[in-house]
Amino acid sequence: MQNKSSDIEIIDTVLAGNQSAYAELVKRNQRYVFTLALRFTRSREDAEEVAQDTFVKAYRSISSYQRTAKFSTWLYTIVYNTAMTYLRKKRLDTSSIDDKGNLIQLESYGSMSENLSVERKSRSFYVNKAIENLLPDDATIINLFYQGEQSLEEIAKVMGMEANTVKVKLHRARQRLKNQLENILGGEVKDLI
User: What's the pTM value of the predicted model, to 2 decimals?
Assistant: First the structure.
């Protein structure tokens, strides 16, 4: 089995002059960067632009990456800042959730029975729908913690907050997510979560 290079090793390769090695970092992170950008912009085209700008900004400032946090945390900080700047410039209405084309289903692929697969898709659909109804900060914290598997400290760096503040906001975001799921599904929420 081939040994995968760590993000730090790839960054060292890029800094040593092999600019094409950066493509591996993009490949590893593009799906989540796009998903996070889409959560903010609510538009596939805008999310693509934010994701592209994020990777360009990250490439240009890769020498400033200080390695005190994971590369993904540093990158997601750039996504967050890029998306916020983009939204301010475009003055988008971030409360619009009616475009079903914006839902991204992040499914795990495996050998599941067809019924289990349908159930999982249904759960993912409703959870994504509920996350879309959250405020951008709540959605970001939920996404970074659960999908990005970031620690409270890493999320704090991304969002420019204290870790304790993130902990409180995560707790409140979970409650709001539960409320959104109850609004969408009514009494069936207990079966979903």
Answer: 0.56
